[in-house]
Amino acid sequence: MASHDDQGDRAEEAKDQNEEKTGHMMDTTKQKAQEAEDRTKESTKQTGSAAKEKGYEAAEATKEKASEMMEASKEAAQAGKEKTSGVLQKTGEQVKSMAESLKQSIGMGGDGGV
């Protein structure tokens, strides 16, 4: 029975670690996008209208890349949640099965219901 608790604890820990990594990735991505945008703005001030247009395009490309990375992080977090959910459901089913077997072995399982 303790191994089921351990399995649930490991699944919860994996979920927490995944969420922490996702949050860190999102923060890093936002920070890098902001830094790129700041550099682009500074460069634009110095180089005139042609550079201004290129800087805007670079900032937009950076924002798009950041958005893609955040979406990938969200998908990874969702996959982790689904995996954790599956592990917890399986553990619950195993506990239920063990309880039913125990009831039957000690003579309490008359109608088959738990």
UniProtKB/TrEMBL annotation:
GO terms for cellular component: nucleus. Residues 1-44, 51-84 have a biased composition (Basic and acidic residues). Residues 1-114 are annotated as: Disordered. This is Late embryogenesis abundant protein (LEA) family protein.
